[in-house]
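job 3f2a | input accepted
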Amino acid sequence: MTPASGAPPAVSVAGVSKTFRVPNERVHTLKERALHPFRRSGFDEFVALDDVSFEVAHGEFLGVVGRNGSGKSTLLKCMAGIYRADRGAIYVDGRLSAFIELGVGFNPDLPARDNVLINGTMLGLSPREAKRRFDSVIDFAELREFEHLKIKNYSSGMLVRLAFAVMIHVDADILLVDEVLAVGDAAFQQKCFDEFYRLRDEGRTMILVTHDMGAVERFCDRAVLLEKGVKIREGDSHRVGMQYLEVNFGRREGAGEGAEAGTAARAGDGRAEIREAWFEDEHGNVASSLETGRPCAFAARVRFTAEVADPLFGVTLENGNHDHVLSASTLWSNPRSGRFEADDEVVYRVCFTNVFSPGRYDATPAVALRGSGTSWLDRRERLCSIVVAGTQATDAIVQLPYEIAVERVQASAPWAAQPEALR
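job 3f2a | predicted structure (423 res):
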């Protein structure tokens, strides 16, 4: 969604930059200052944001994603007025409510009631209206039995519930929500997601910072990807989420676009050499990342140093937990692979549909003598790796395609849903 022609955006971020000075040496005590009066501590500059620009339309949900240290929280704090931008400008059209950092704005020596009244007033409610909404806030946060307890005795989850409840009860036009929601338990997170749906239906504007790409695709109309303080992509939530996963996993030595065999552990008698290995997408292009649910292939180039008849070609894939998720070999599909002479080169491919969950996967290719498959000619341990990108977070190792059918049954005949054999 983009702002309608002539309509001002809800939020406009124009060329915002923010730099922090980090001292090389800190003087902590008066004694240190007295003993070393002429010592000068230098500073390093850390660029948290560098010329970041984007706009958010009224009623739009925008996701802000990026690795730790990419500048996401700094950006939200600049938007909320907690930090002043060094350069650029931020324009906000409407009342703003921020949920940025755990416990910010709360007085730890006051109970929940006083903190709710103070924060509600600071966020634009009148004292009378803040009092009227207290019961709703405390019930939403599920803290009724702790309302008289000083919040310095609250757990982090209790603080999250209270802060989020205050934020959604102040009728703000624009909401800034940081990934601190991850501190809450699963039940409260679902409660927050239900509120997100309600807020979106009411036409509120939200900027959501999170590492959960499923939430970005689920709620956000668009997304912005930051890396080292620079906006590197803005657009469709799914595409931005895919690039975030690729950036987040990074690229290791020997990963993605093909790896030379010299750096991988080797086993075998040397009659064959696996020279390089790589992954290809569904179009046959060398890929550094693959999308879940799409066709793909693993490929390796092999050079023979002696005559070999009908060798076996194969590969195993394992995930980050070292679970073997794929074993493929010509032992089962094509045991008669042919006769090869010294200096012959071949490329073998294993084509499959990528059903793996998001993460990094290591490939171990091998060439063996025909038979048991353990008489290695060459085997390269974790020769190359691939990042699998997807926005659906599950606990499963693989994400198999499936269909779910839901059928309504008559309430007056509960037995109708039972199999006939059980009636």
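job 3f2a | The chain has a mean pLDDT of 84.
job 3f2a | closed
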